[in-house]
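Running log. JK asked me to keep both predictions on one page so they can be read side by side. First protein, sequence followed by its tokens:
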Amino acid sequence: MIYIDPPNWPGHGRMWSHLISDESFDELHVFAAGLGAPPRAFDGDHYDVPAASYAEAVRRGAAEVGSKELVRLLREAGLRRPKRTRGTGGP
């Protein structure tokens, strides 16, 4: 399953969401590519998605969850990566 949190994260003059999978990075990369997210938006265990793409992600099937729930799901799936090891396993 793919999950997205609300666009509550500021950066580069925009607001951002995080997009994750609780199944695999392959599932996440396929979904993100279909959404039009560039590979550089992958941050080791999630994609940073601009607020303008939030509704489209939900329309395509991403489940809306809060930020704390998103991190919990990622940890329970065994896909959470510490910041120092992010950047590996990209598309």
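And the second, directly underneath as requested:
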Amino acid sequence: MAILSKEEAQAILKKVLSFSKADSCEVSLNGSNGGNIRYARNAVSTAGQVNVMSLSVNSTFGKKTGSASINEFDDASLKKVVSRAEELAMLAPENPEFMPLLGAQTFQESKTYNENTAAMTPDTRAEMVGKSLGVAKAANLDAAGFLENSTRFNSVMNSKGLFAYNKSTNVSFSVTIRNKEGTGSGYVEQDFNDLSKMDVLALSKIAASKATGSAGAKAIEPGKYTVILEPLAASDILSNMFRGFDARSADEGRSFMSKKGGGTRLGEQLFSENVNIYSDPMNPELPSATWNGDGLALKRTDWVKNGVVKNLAYSRFWAEKKGVEPVPFGRSMVIEGGTQSLQDLIKSTEKGILVTRFWYIRSVDPQTLLLTGLTRDGTFYIENGEIKFPIKNFRFNESPVIMLNNVEALGKPVRTGSGMIPPMKIKDFTFSSLSDAI
């Protein structure tokens, strides 16, 4: 019963609202159905199937709101959860940032659901993992990975007439492959809405190649280098930056978007002219729901155009306070790129470093977005357009804002986590010390 149709979800939500005695009420109903396989040392260790559904009620009297949730759906249970939310509302303090519920809205039909992904079975997952294990065993390497798929629905209805529904699918895969001596490591990570786009065999071959190729790493001096960041590495460091496109934190002086002396950097040339960032729930490679938790419609939004900050995200509360229209934050961030492949960027580099990914990233200075972290799972020295040898990992100290001012070239974007990110060629990237980890 975990995946309800739009009509089935709507019927339950209407019933719940009919029990409400509050000034206003909002009800959300969500469910998911999926499975997973985990493997390590070339053998499956766990496998599971998850099927859940839950309902949450927010009841409001004046500016006082109470919340309650339940996973039972008979009439008595639905009445009980509504009553509980109303009891809690009467006990709650007034919310100084309370916003009245939105009325009926119009949303585009999303592209987040794929029948093939929804039809995945334990046999499908086992066959996919078998391909990955076959790559590792054939090369006398050790693999540890995780494959997961899910089908979800999210729905919300309120007493002012708003109703929204979205159904989605996802399949994700990651694997670390290492040599038997523990001196070389490779890693890949990928997810899609559409199962047909997931090539576990090809991804595992990449990880295996890096595991073999990164053995016998040499130490080179830390310093500023031209780097080629694979999309995963770029995504690792840029996800921290995306969260900074928030108007409130900028207005309150809490982010890199804050201007010294007050105000925000909206409209400023903050990045290199070849940097363009937007979000679009209808992007065919990175679709998302077309509405957010506030009940606002999501649409294509330019955040950075030719290096200039074009928009900041405004919640309904902050927009009202500032006298502007709300701007919901996008769920699907896209950095535009060119047509060059990762190999093309490597060939164009006289001297530099190829980074597979970063990890253990921590904030050093929120005002400049200075970050620190480590390279991992395959770091290589480039000379005269070729990978010459593996190198020991580095700790980096760098701000993605500075990084995007030092862009020399951007390749073809690929889906990486919650974004479409191109491989990047960056000059003067700062490595501060060596790391012995692989």
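Observation for JK regarding the second prediction: The first helix runs from residue 6 to 18.
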